[in-house]
């Protein structure tokens, strides 16, 4: 089947994308690694010894970054309904983190600890219909926030990808109820035309 002009343009852009090329050189599974690296450079969320959960982790580039930054004294737990090739130093659980059995597996790995940080780069399967995609996206964001509320230690942090739309302000308000400070980040590796933005909640109340 012949590719459309749009998919051809995307493929051309992807092949020539400097972050894609850099990811291949650095051994990261996706260009998204550089979004987390840039945010972490500014906000120092992940350090030696940090215990964190990576929601919607596949294909694993954020888990790769996190595992390198937390060092041998930290812990990285990755959760996704999709399969993910193993990442050294990362405990991966495949399944829906809302399901009881998946949550039990996760809590068993935690061994009574609470998380310092929850990170989420989740995005829905795109239908191409803006209203549906926005609704699906914010539903994932709400699930991630609920998980963070339940699993973060007091003072813990939460980094989540959102897409600016009609639900954005309401979601910001919900985050402000949970965290002492909420700031937005738009890393350079995030494409200019994308409406994605990252919200960082600091200091769980």
Strand order of the largest sheet: 3-2-1-4-5-7-6
Strand residue content: 15-25%
Order of helices and strands: HHHEHEEHEHEHEE
Class in CATH?
Answer: Alpha Beta
Tell the overall outline.
globular
The second-level CATH architecture is 3-Layer(aba) Sandwich
**Strand count, sense and closure of the main sheet?**
7 strands, mixed
What portion of residues is helical? 40-55%
Number of helices: 7
Count of extended strands:
7
Low-confidence segments: none
Mean pLDDT: 92
CATH names the topology as: Rossmann fold
Assembly state of the chains shown: single chain
The secondary-structure class comes to: alpha/beta
Q: Superfamily at the CATH H level?
A: Vaccinia Virus protein VP39
User: What number of domains?
Assistant: 1
Over all CA atoms, what is the radius of gyration? 17 Å
Gap from first CA to last CA:
53 Å
Task: Write a concise keyword list for the protein shown above.
205 residues, alpha/beta, Rossmann fold, 7-stranded mixed sheet, 7 strands
What topology does this entry show?
Elements: H1 5-16, H2 18-26, H3 33-43, E1 51-55, H4 61-70, E2 75-80, E3 90-94, H5 100-110, E4 115-120, H6 130-151, E5 152-163, H7 168-178, E6 179-185, E7 196-204
Parallel strand pairs: 1-2, 1-4, 2-3, 4-5
Antiparallel strand pairs: 5-7, 6-7
